[in-house]
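Notes, p. 3: input format for complexes.
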Amino acid sequence: MSRPKVLVAMKLVPEIAIDLLRKRFDVEVCDSIQVTRAEIMKKVPGKFAIFCSPWNKIDEELIKTAGPSLKVVGTFSVGYDHVDLNALKKYGIRLGNTPDVLTEAVAETTVGLLIATTRRFFEANHAVKTGGWKDVTPVWMCGRGIKNSVVGIVGCGNIGTSTAKKLKTFEISQLLYTSRTEKPAVKALGGKLVAIDELVEQSDFIILSIALNKDTKFIINKERIAKMKSHAVLVNIGRGELIDQDALIEALQEKRIGGAGLDVMTPEPLPLDSPLMKMDNVVLLPHIGSASIETRTEMAILTAKNIIAVLDNTAMPKEVQF
Ligand code: 8YV
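Output follows (322 residues plus 2-keto-D-gluconic acid):
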């Protein structure tokens, strides 16, 4: 008897997760590092499940191409802005994601990216390696310190809360955050719930750790960038489209803000001719927020378990309700 089929739309998924799937399914793993839409469309017909990432758009066209066998999408991410929930609903398809297991890794990346950007680590590293380290003067390679600063976190879910906890140990002077509701854990740290415009105006460091959806797209727009302090540093570990990137580029070029640390951008990968590539005060990471070996392994196992639960008709470990 033929077994149900899973399409793994990513390469180099930890083998432990593929093994879990292989016990129950026929598994087809895409063989290119950057899996194209065309490859997925070719391989998806007849699949019971798709194991995907934020770079795979899951829309009605893809669902129709998969056909009635498709019952579950397991995304290897906490974010699911790449998934058309209305289309899933229409065809009765369930969605699993990977919250919690990645919280600490992403919060670690956030803090690291903030420090690297404000204290100019990559610029300094480049100087050392290219013979730029000559006389050391007191103001050479100085950046703004985090101690005594105002930090604003846009979106205080699990990742934002963990980031807030870590940054509190840096003796910041004030912690501001936005959220739909007050977060007791952030309040206990002294965090003040404010409106986004107040946060943007008052913060020395602005961190975006909010999910992308129709309400948050371009939450950092031209007007809000104009309200930022002239030394403000913006860190984004959510999704590129939270920021109007053209407006950000303009502000950075005109030195109207201090800098930006971006783990996510538009598009990904960022073209080499993007003006962001040439800016000393911009640190770019290739969407590695959750990229610790342990975390990626846990995410892969959880994605596999979410898919297996649908086959077993049991509760998914992490199901997106919509
Ligand atoms: C990616 C992410 O899934 O969790 C998310 O929403 O964007 C990341 O963790 C990860 O980089 C691998 O695709």
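The chain has a mean pLDDT of 97.
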